[in-house]
Amino acid sequence: MKKQLRLYNSLSRRKETFTPLSAGQVTLYTCGPTVYDYSHLGNFRTFLFEDVLHRVLLWAGYRVKHVMNITDVGHLVSDADAGEDKMEKGARREGKSVWDIAAFYTGEFERDFFDSLNALRPDVLPKATDHIAEQIALVQRLEDKGFTYRISDGVYFDTARVADYGKLAAVDIDQLQEGARVEKNPEKRQPADFALWKFSPAGVGAAQRQMEWDSPWGKGFPGWHLECSAMSMKYLGETLDIHTGGIDHREIHHTNEIAQSEAATGKPFARVWMHGEFITVDGRRMGKSLGNFIRVADVVARGFDPSAYRYMTLLTHYRKPANFTWEGLAAADAALQRVWRFVASAAGRQAELKDTAVLEDAVRDFEAAIFDDLNMPQAVGVAQRVMEIGAGGGKDFLPAAATLLKFDAVLGLRLAEHVTGAAQVDVPAAVQKLVDAREVARATKNWTEADRLRDEISAAGYEVDDAASGPVVRKKS
Ligand code: AMP
Ligand code: ZN
Fold first, then answer.
1. CA 387, CA 417: separation in Å to the nearest integer?
2. Atom 12 (ligand 1): residue with closest C-alpha?
3. Which residue among 121, 204, 363, 397 has the highest number of C-beta atoms inside a 10 angstrom radius?
4. How many whole angstroms separate alpha carbon 467 and alpha carbon 323?
């Protein structure tokens, strides 16, 4: 009998005891990055909360099938269906093709998230552009059932046909849609109606789109909510267990995903919806379009290990707003270094450590925290207490270290690497030279050269993390 995992469901607006549709197996869909620019620490706050969720589900003993999409098409600058296409805008900005832009920023996202921030890889990372046929099929299904209508710029979903439209949204959907719109579309029947398929602009002076596809309704591209419905149903079935995203997705994107999915299938789409709150900088939301964003590379350039950001995100509950400051990151980094130093004291005692029983009370407290709607601040508090118990290196040290290592399945702070010294491997002299040269470049704030050297180190098959104690070199996996 598994312990009870409680999760806050945005749909019911309360914490519920979680039980998956099929025993022992959870289907999880998380809205992924739009790859027209680098993902920033704001995006990663949401993605990290989702990674913690994935890890907590594993801790609870479930098999997890996790899908995270890559949005590489047709995502407009506004939440409504007007305005510029983000991907095409990114391509123009950099004088590259949309396809090159998508490939480049997808690679950067994967490096930052999986390599630097130590996130678990979802089972599938499907791209919207690889699923155009599935999206067209979904629109056809909706058309056959009479949920769509056609106007001059596309095929739209008729929200008046859905009795419970907007059930997820916490505010009046009509007002929100009106407010968010860049330009009113007088042809729409209701303000909340949204595009399923947009026609490529035609006529004299129309900007040429780089991404467009043939469809039964003419050349064009999918509306931006469509991909998540089509891909989650393809990989996870018509009803999935948990669907997540940032809080900004609740009112429009997820509301529309629900409407079109449930209209098409007649079944509930996702049983639990979870939303992460935003992180701000100087009180303003961090956003790609606002140009105030901080990247993982900026964190590294300031001499922090990316894990310090991961640790920092654990210190605020995912449903509470957070504010980013460099002082906050420095404090998180200092706390993380203490944990790393603590477990590193077990170096050379791995065999003993393996045979050491964990502190059962602490494990129970940790589990109570993570099972209470992912209360990570409380879970980190338990980890801190465990360090106090093991302080001084007495008989309680090894049990405390073993307990922290167990917690790391959820924390994801690379603790094992700091015990075995894997974080500090034997590197060939040629690579060590590059690492040393990079330290000099960093000390003189020559970031371009430091980045170039990092690339050279990477080409040699190694990666370097900048811990406060100095560079940590690892063989690439
Ligand atoms: P995007 O790449 O713009 O599609 O966003 C990816 C994810 O990041 C979405 O789930 C957003 O809700 C989330 N997000 C965007 N900005 C922030 C922020 N400042 N804080 C937390 N999450 C964010
Ligand atoms: Zn989505």
1. 18
2. 246
3. 397
4. 23
pLDDT tens column, 393-411: 899 999 999 999 999 999 9
Q: How much is the average pLDDT of 298-326?
A: 97
Q: pLDDT per residue over 227-279, tens digit each?
A: 999 999 999 999 999 999 999 999 999 999 999 999 999 999 999 999 999 99
Percentage with pLDDT > 90 across the chain: 71
Three-state DSSP at 85 gives: strand
Residues with CB under 5 A from ligand 2 (ion): 31, 228
Q: What is the pTM for the complete model shown?
A: 0.87
pLDDT confidence of residue 160: 96
The C-alpha R_g of the chain, in whole angstroms, comes to: 24
Cα of 46 vs centre of ligand 1, distance in Å, is 6
- How many angstroms separate the CA atoms of 440 and 446, rounded? 8
286 CA closest ligand 1 atom index? 19
Six-digit token string for 8: 């806050």
Residues contacting ligand 1 via CB (< 6 Å): 31, 33-34, 42-43, 45-46, 71, 245-246, 248-249, 276, 278-279, 285-288
* Fold of domain 281-420: Isoleucyl-tRNA Synthetase; Domain 1 (1.10.730)
Q: Which pLDDT score is estimated for 1?
A: 44
pLDDT higher for 132 or 170? Answer: 132
Q: Residues annotated in the binding site, as ranges?
A: 31, 228, 253, 257, 288
CA dist 149 and 165 (Å) reads: 17
Separation of first and last alpha carbons in the chain: 36
Domain boundary assignment for the chain = 6-276, 281-420, 423-477
**Sequence-ordered strand ranges (E) for 69-181:** 148-151, 154-157
- pLDDT band with cut points at 50, 70 and 90 for residue 176: low
For a pocket test of ligand 1, which of 10, 46, 73, 244 has the largest count of ligand atoms closer than 8 A to its C-beta? 46
Q: Do domains 6-276 and 281-420 have the same CATH topology?
A: no
Mean pLDDT of the chain: 90
Residue nearest to atom 15 of ligand 1 (CA): 43
- Residue 39 CA: nearest ligand 1 atom is 2
Domain 6-276, CATH 3.40.50.620 — does that match?
yes
Token pair for 262 = 């449930």
Residue 132 CA to residue 217 CA, distance in Å, equals: 14
